[in-house]
């Protein structure tokens, strides 16, 4: 173990006075640093010129939000074949048109059409297919219930399901706008990185399949507040996100190891405490008065067999083994992977950025989980925009995800068409799962390389910044690390495109 400083300072939320003064980062314009962005800009007149002015009403935030809403609307249009009848006309039509959504089916299937209260009212088998309680976390259940209350005016069940989908699509559009705003503002000098989220084809295709955008928006808001050095408020948002979907709780792991390395224990304590408090405020009342309904999500997650999109499904179909113990294997792989990410955080020559570790830990969960629903890509899109803002790598990964999006529906069409077998056979579906796995691993590999060799990190290389999304961690000195420490050298303000380089290892 190497200590970068001779004594451990008390935990604090401000940068150490011994830290070198940071060079003022310049605003990053993607056409100056990214070849793909520069080439694509020819469609609208070419890269930004040296005489361009930033005084236009069309600020990056306004442009990116409008683009995001436009892409979201295109995603809604892509669902129109199902809205016009494929959700209701037969089992395979919604798969052939690749426009399936859980939302209209669960309006009746989870008792919302009959006015049942989630978690408190048992759902009859005749409408639920054996799912006696709503199998979603409490905050998502509240979101679904709100949309059900706003669903008015239908003359029959089919019209009510259509209205319910439209209401949810409108509410989720608000979540998409919040998500984009948070990503744009997290890295103050890199607003255009929000365009990765706005133009992500997988976001447009999967945004209205399920309710994941609620948790994704809350997580992005929590990361924004952390970047503003407000750890308690950030923890509250992460706790609310965890009350909507389980995966945001994993972000406390990267915060733990990064705060450990920088000895920012007070900040981590505030974040963890805020997360626990917010989660408890949402969940404890339901636990006390409807425990069986509240526990259904956790029991279903544990008992669910190997399912679509996972590595375990490939192994199951290729070997014939049932993999009933996939939970155990997944937990072992997750533990080993998290240990590796922690080692990366504590051993890298320069402390990795929060977004880098956040992407790695959520990607690890996605890769080892026993199910991968197509909308899970939403968890990773904003983290990818902050962790590795380079269009080439982002588009390679998105191409793999779009391929998987199409592949799963074609596979379901194949399995649901009886003896006709119209669609993608199991062997083809295994290939698209493999494409999803490899695409995610590719982006993980690029991020690990950036962490081990900071000169390759586009965020640090483009403008000389340290961790613009790190809040109290940004340019904080290292106190605890494993391996040779390197320290920032004080330099004058850098011009765009230069990199603040590292000095020699400290004794």
TrEMBL record:
- Supply the InterPro entries for this chain: GT87 (IPR018584), UCP010361 (IPR016570)
Q: Which UniProt keywords apply?
A: Cell membrane, Membrane, Transferase, Transmembrane, Transmembrane helix
Q: What is an example of a Pfam family matching this protein?
A: GT87
| Keyword Membrane applies | yes
Q: Where in the cell is it found?
A: Cell membrane
Keyword Ribosomal protein appears in the UniProt entry? no
Q: Where is this region: Disordered?
A: 1-32, 484-507
According to its UniProt record, where is this protein mainly located? membrane
Q: How does it sit in the membrane?
A: Multi-pass membrane protein
TM regions (residue ranges):
57-77, 163-184, 196-226, 232-260, 267-291, 328-347, 354-374, 394-416
The annotated regions of Basic and acidic residues compositional bias extend over 1-10
Which residues fall in a compositionally biased region of kind Low complexity? 12-29
Q: Which family would the database say this protein is a member of?
A: Belongs to the glycosyltransferase 87 family.
| Protein name as catalogued | Glycosyltransferase 87 family protein
Species annotation: Streptomyces iconiensis
């Amino acid at each position: 173990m190497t200590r970068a400083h001779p004594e451990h300072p008390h935990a604090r939320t401000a940068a150490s006075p011994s830290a070198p003064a940071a060079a003022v980062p310049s605003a990053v314009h993607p056409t100056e640093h990214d070849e793909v962005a520069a080439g694509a800009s020819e469609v609208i007149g070419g890269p930004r010129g040296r005489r361009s002015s930033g005084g236009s009403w069309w600020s990056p935030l306004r442009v990116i939000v409008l683009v995001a809403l436009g892409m979201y609307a295109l995603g809604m249009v892509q669902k129109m074949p199902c809205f016009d009848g494929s959700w209701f006309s037969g089992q395979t039509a919604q798969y052939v048109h690749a426009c399936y959504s859980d939302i209209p089916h669960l309006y009746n299937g989870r008792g919302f059409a009959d006015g049942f209260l989630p978690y408190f009212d048992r759902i009859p088998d005749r409408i639920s297919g054996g799912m006696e309680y709503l199998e979603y976390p409490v905050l998502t259940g509240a979101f679904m219930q709100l949309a059900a209350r706003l669903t008015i005016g239908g003359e029959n069940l089919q019209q009510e399901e259509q209205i319910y989908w439209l209401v949810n699509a409108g509410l989720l559009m608000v979540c998409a706008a919040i998500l984009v705003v948070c990503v744009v503002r997290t890295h103050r000098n890199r607003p255009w990185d929000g365009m990765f989220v706005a133009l992500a084809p997988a976001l447009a295709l999967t945004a209205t399949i399920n309710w994941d955008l609620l948790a994704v928006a809350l997580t992005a808001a929590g990361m924004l507040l952390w970047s503003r050095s407000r750890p308690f408020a950030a923890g509250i948002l992460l706790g609310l996100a965890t009350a909507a979907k389980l995966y945001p709780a994993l972000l406390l792991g990267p915060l733990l190891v990064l705060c450990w390395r920088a000895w920012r224990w007070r900040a981590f304590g505030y974040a963890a405490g805020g997360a626990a408090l917010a989660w408890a405020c949402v969940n404890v009342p339901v636990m006390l008065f409807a425990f069986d309904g509240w526990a259904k999500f956790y029991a279903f997650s544990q008992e669910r067999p190997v399912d679509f999109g996972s590595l375990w499904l490939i192994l199951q179909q290729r070997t014939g083994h049932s993999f009933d113990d996939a939970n155990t294997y997944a937990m072992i792989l997750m533990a080993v992977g998290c240990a590796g990410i922690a080692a990366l955080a504590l051993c890298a020559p320069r402390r990795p950025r929060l977004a880098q570790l956040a992407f790695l830990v959520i990607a690890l969960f996605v890769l080892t989980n026993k199910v991968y629903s197509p909308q899970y890509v939403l968890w990773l899109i904003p983290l990818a925009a902050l962790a590795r803002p380079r269009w080439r790598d982002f588009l390679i990964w998105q191409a793999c995800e779009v391929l998987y999006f199409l592949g799963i529906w074609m596979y379901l069409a194949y399995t649901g068409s009886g003896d006709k077998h119209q669609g993608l056979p199991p062997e083809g579906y295994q290939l698209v799962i493999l494409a999803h796995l490899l695409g995610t691993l590719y982006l993980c590999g690029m991020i690990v390389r950036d962490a081990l060799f900071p000169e390759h990190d586009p965020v640090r290389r483009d403008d000389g910044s340290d961790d613009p999304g790190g809040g109290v961690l940004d340019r904080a000195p290292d106190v605890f690390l494993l391996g040779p420490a390197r320290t920032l050298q004080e330099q004058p303000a850098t011009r765009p495109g230069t990199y603040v380089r590292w000095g020699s290892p400290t004794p």
